[in-house]
Structure formats: structure tokens, C-alpha cells
Amino acid sequence: MTQADHTPEDxxxxxxxxxxxxxxxxxxxxxxxxxxQVENLRKYFPVKSxxxxxxxxxxxxAVDGVSFEVPAGGSLGLVGESGCGxxxxxxxxxxxxxPTGGAIRFGDQDIAxxxxxxxxPLRREIQMIFQDPYTSLNPRHTVGSIVGAPLQIHDIVPKDxxxxxxxxxxxxxxxxxxxxxxxxxxxSGGQRQRIGIARALTLQPKLLxxxxxxxxxxxxxxxxxINLLQDLQKEFGIAFLFIAHDLAIVxxxxxxxxxxxxxxxxxxxxxxxxYNRPHHPYTQALLSAVPDVKQAAIGGRRERIRxxxxxxxxINPPSxxxxxxxxxxxxxxxxxxxxxxxxxxxxxxxxxxxxGEIGKHPEQPVTAKLLGVDDYxxxxxxxxxxxxxxxxxxxxxxxxxxxxxxxxxxPDQRS
Amino acid sequence: MTLTASVEPHGDxxxxxxxxxxxxxxxxxxxxxxxxxxxxxxxxxxxxxAISVFIVLCAIAAPILVAVDVLNPNAFNRDLLSSTGTNPxxxxxxxxxxxxxxxxxxTGRDLLSRIMLAxxxxxxxxxxxxxxxxxxxxxxxxxxxxxxxxIDATVGRFIDLTLSFPQTMMLLALSSPAVLLLRTDIAxxxxxxxxxxxxxxxxxxxxxxxxxxxxxxxxxxxxGQVLSIRxxxxxxxxxxxxxxxxxxxxxxxxxxxxxxxxxxxxxLVPAYISAxxxxxxxGVGIKPPTPTLGNILANSVNYTSADPTFFFLPGxxxxxxxxxxxxxxxxxxxxxxxxxxx
Lengths: 415, 342
Fold this sequence. Notes:
The complex is a heterodimer. Chain A is an alpha/beta fold. Chain A has helices at residues 14-20, 86-93, 119-123, 143-154, 159-172, 189-201, 219-236, 247-253, 271-276, 281-288, 293-298, 332-336, 368-371, and strands spanning 34-48, 56-71, 75-79, 101-106, 109-110, 126-129, 207-211, 239-243, 256-261, 264-270, 342-345, 348-350, 397-400, 405-408. In chain A, helix 4 packs across helix 5 (159-172) and helix 6 (189-201) runs parallel beside helix 7. Chain A starts with 13 loop residues before the first helix and ends in a 7-residue tail after the last strand. Chain B has a single domain (43-83, 100-336), classed as MetI-like (MetI-like fold, Orthogonal Bundle), CATH 1.10.3720. Chain B contains twelve helices and no strands. In chain B, helix 3 (31-41) crosses helix 12, helix 10 packs parallel to helix 11 (293-300) and helix 10 (245-282) runs antiparallel to helix 12 (308-336).
């Protein structure tokens, strides 16, 4: 037999071939209860003046009223450009930051209200995978003590059982269990991220906040790590809040995706709707910026939506809709009235006065009647604003933007 | 670097079971062993280490040798001095088999005995002072750097106060009442049988003064390091695990500031040896007849032209001690820091 007779698979074990093979996109378990409900979550960082008396002269509204839910064993993607507050949201849910307001319901507990002492048992349930595998591992600790530290802190395993458990975890994430004695600097970026994942798994969490878990890695390694996360999700039923800015990876990993802009969620929908029929002009612009391989092969130029200007400062965000300063559709109403999060499909919410598919945006604001204002955002004297559900989840009735009527879910659409 | 080469990771991100045969080579080498191996591979460090161990052993052995009468630091040998009663007879300050380092001018006391015993007290004071300084400096540095805010500001002002304090004035002014106070306080403590109460009290006084005014630079260096370390993601990871403050300070942060601390220690030990010498010179530290490197050197200054050996030997020894401690510290830092490659 010559070398040429071998396919690459011949040199791999069946397990490796399975792990390396492209995985199908993740799907959320049907009928799962939400494990995490975030409602109107806010985080304002004070801006202090310099000098002896440090007065608060302003607030960075990093996260300003976001609501979403993560189904048990499922995953929600959180995308947006740099500085839009997605990492802050992740750090609020893990309570690395203290929320300014709002609720984070995990099980029957509100994490936003829990004291520092009360958080300790919760730490076992919610863990985090960090962005940069080069700073997220203590360079002075061995892999064994990094992965085993949660066991010691929570005192759940007798001392002599720590090492076997650590080795088991290393094996789960595809590392050599004999390497527990090595330091992080002896590993490559992908291996380090696996160590970080093993540490997050140590306490068998129910929810993992993955804060850009692959953006620091090579593209080839990204696929391996994403495959690993998918395997872990399937095997242990872990729910993911997946924060990223790579839309392709989010599309693969997350059946539901929320798009953030300047501290607010502008659109949240299931994968198919968001990627194929986005209703918010920002989402449309974001998706049009994704390079397309097929397009490159044809050689043609694709229509791109170019946003002009910079992201406004979160210290002094624009009135009304925060996106209006860069929005191609913006009109008078956008400056006066903040668009509510309106459910426009069975699993689709969007915060825009002119919500609609690309090229089919309505001329008149769809929200005016619901909010009791005229088309220019001035309050109409006789109108009664309708109640718009602003909770974290989806309801069985929604407002169809094309027909401007309320529609009800057919039985197979009910969640 | 052959020792570390065998455990270098495989560059690719392949799965581990492919490299199953390398497991035997990996097993059973703890991180500490690796550091020791790296240290031993460095010749200069090993030579310095051997010399410093020898010096420390001499310092430890001296009181024992005095007790068993091998060394006689206080016996007068006037017969070895010239008829005028000052300069030693013979060449190089009266070097002989009985007195390998010669004898002291003026008294004829054995110089080897005096220098060895001086090493005991000088090193003892310098090392204890360094230890105390580092403990205070590291704890305050970590706490203030990590907590920030009010605590950081308070410690910062306290550092300014300490640094702007006229310490030499206070040192001299407080010397006699403080020594008196300490003397009554430590009267009950078991001595080595070699030091008088007065010497023990003034030695302790020197240690306390060194530590009280020596910690601010350590705290500043540590605080600066901690400010950058606390922003790293592994600190957040530790908080997420539910780590206590103590664990964060001493298990997560402290190992990352060892290198600058070690560098500072290697500078502090020799600095404190010479500081102690200076104090002795000013008459604050341990006084003759109990020998320290400081008071021997202070005494030898009077005889530099008449008996240069008397000045030369303790001076060279002091310099040697300072240099080898520095080199050992350098080597230890390189060995403990897995990222340093020469």
C-alpha cells in the first residue's frame, strides 16, 4: 500500500473523525422552558470628573434595557459591533458587574438582586468562557490547578479525587489527561481555549456564557472549538448565551439570535428569519457587510448598505431611536419616540418604526397607531396606546407589519 | 535547555491520543522540579548559590563554633601586636595558621572569628529585615492595588508620609528610648546565649526601622503590577468560580508578582547589610564588642594605611555577599519565570 491509498481519515480514530467532521447547525430542544430570562436589564457606568472631589458628571449607558430569554439546553446568540454592550451583558449575567436595574431570572432566583454571598451557589450553575485564551488562564498555575480550582473552592470533591476528575475533564475537551502538570504557555491557542472550556465545565453548569469564545483563534481552530461546544451542549444539555461578532459562526451555533446596537437589542429572531428576512435596517446593514464567498466567485459586486458616521457616544445617546443618526430610513418620529420591541412574527421581535423586509420598508410608521401618536411622532389627543408586551419571551399573538393586523399563532407555531 | 525541550508541547492542535507514546516522558516532572532543573543548568547561578550557601552556613556555624571554643572573637592576643601595641606583627595583618585572617590591630582579637560572627548578626538582621519589609510591602501592595478606591488612596498617602519622613533623624533621636523599651519587652525571650540584652534590643530596633521605612517601594512595585494583573481575564474567571478575596490575593495575584518581588529582595538584602553597617557606624546598631560587619568596618577605617588587610577582608566579604545574593536572585527569577529564555 502506498501513501496515496490512505485518506486522512485512516490516520484518525473514529472519535477524532467524528469530532473533526463538520457538525450540523445547532437546534434548540423543542418545548424547552427558558432557563434564563433577562428583563429590562440596565448597566450604567458612572463617569467621574477629575480632581479632588470626583463628582459623577455622566453615565455610560452600556446596557440600557435589554430583554431576552435562553431556553434550557438551547442557545441564544448575541451579536453587534464593538462597544455595543454585548460583553457587558454577559458580565452582568455572570454578575461580574452589578446591574443598575432590571431582572435576571435564573430558575426561580433573580440574580440581579442576589447578594455577593448568595451568589456562591449560583456560580456552580452559570460559568463563562472567555474571549482571550492568552489572558484567561493564570500563567503561574498548572493546567491541573486551573481546572481543579473550582472543585477546591466549592469543596465538592475530596482532595485525592480532584486529579482524576481534572483528567476526566481534560479528556472530555480533547486534551491529553497527562498534561495536567503543564503550564498554559506550553499550549497553543486552541488548546488553551479547551482548557478554559474544561474549567467552565468543572462545576457542571447549566448555563455557559461564551464571550466571543473563538474570535481569538485561527479559523481552522475555530471550527474545532465550535464543534466541541456543540458536542458538549448535546452531551450535557448546557444552555449557551453565545456572544460574538462573527455572524457566520452565530448562524451555525445559535437557533436564535439577538442583534444589539448601542446598549439595546434592536432585533431578535430565530435563525432563518433573522438571516433571510431581517426587518431592522441595522440588521440588514450588518448582514450586508458579511463577505460572501459565492459572490466573490462570480466576481460581481453585491449591493452593500453603507452606514455613514460613527456610533454615537453611549454617554449621550440620541433621543428616540438610537440608530436614527445612521439610519437610511430615519424620519421625524424616530427622533421623538423610541420604537418599542414589537413582535412581528412567531419568533421575531424588532424595534423599528419602519420595520420591514429589505426594500419593502413601509412609508408610514407601523408603530404610530400602537403608540397613540401620529406619523410624525406627536401624541394624538384622542388615541389610546395599545399595550405592547415588552417581556423577555415571545407570545402567541403578534403584529403583522404587512397587513398591520394582529395575528395569532397556528397550533404548530406555538412555542 | 535540554531539560525543558523534552516536555515542549507539540505545536499543532491535534488531539492528544495520537501522541500517546510521549506520555511516559511527560509523567512525573513537577513544575518545581522543572524550575530547579532550569536553575541548575545555569552555571553562574549555581556558583553564586554555592558561595551564598557557604556564607550562610558560616553565619549559622559561627555561634556554635564560638560556643565550643573553636572561635574566640573576644580573646585578646597582645603578644601578636608590635611593641607600640597597635599593629599586628607579621605580614598581611599577622596572618598565621592560628589566625588565617590575621588579628585586629589594637587588641589582637582573631579577625576570622570576628568576621564569621559578624556575618551571623549582619545577615540575620538583613534577612529578617528583608522578610518583614517584603511581607508588609506585598500585603499592602496587593490589597491596595486590587481594591482600588478609598483603600488604595489611603495606602498611597501613607506611602507618601513614610517616604517624606525624616527617618535618619527619627532613627537617631528614638534610638536610646526605643532600645530601652525593647530591652524590657524582650527580656523574657530566650536568647542565643551570645547576645546581651542590649545587643538584642538594638538589633531588633534596626530590623524594625529597616522594615518600617523600607516597605513603601515594595508596596509601590507590587501595586503597579497588581493594577495590570487584576484586569486580566483569569481574575474574572477566579471570581466566577466564587474565589474568596484571600484566594484572589495570594493564589491568583501573588504568584504573578513573584518576579519583581524576588528582584527587590535581591536588592534589599545587600542594601540592608550595608544599611546595618551604616547604622553601626552611627552608633545605633549592635555595638562592640559584639561584632557586625558594620562596626568592624567602622573600626578598620582608622587603620587603612597601617593595616590595609584589616579593612580589605571585611570589605571584600561584604562586596562578595552583596554580589552573590544578587546573582542568586537573578538566577531564581529566570528559573521561576517559564517565559524567560536566554
